[in-house]
Amino acid sequence: GAGIISCHRVCCALVGEEHAIFEGSTSMTGADNPLNGKKRMKTRSYLFDSTYEMVEFGYTEAISMGLVLPLDCPVTVKTDLVEVTVMLKVEFTVSRTPITS
User: Fold this and answer.
1) Per-residue DSSP letters for 13-31?
2) Phi-psi bin for 58: left (phi > 0), alpha (psi -120 to 50), beta?
3) pLDDT (tens digit, 9 = 90+) per residue, 65-77?
4) What is the spatial distance between Cα 46 and Cα 85, in angstroms, rounded to a whole number?
């Protein structure tokens, strides 16, 4: 059977990205190019808040973390010219070897 992978740390962050959206072609130029389309280019990255919690395998049953968005932070929005996204990113630090029972 499959073993259990022990978790040692959980990290959470509220992050965001801003992309400029523009018209572009991938290879040829001209109106007849079937590959004409919109392109996205990352113009800004945000880190609003982050925290981590150490986990003691076998003893920690649950964790709770609080994150705060600033009052002036951007919100998730999409227009013809710009796209701004706010996301929750979660990372786990685990052992390389599983625990077999």
Assistant:
1) EEEEEEEEEEEE-SS--ST
2) left
3) 999 988 888 788 8
4) 10
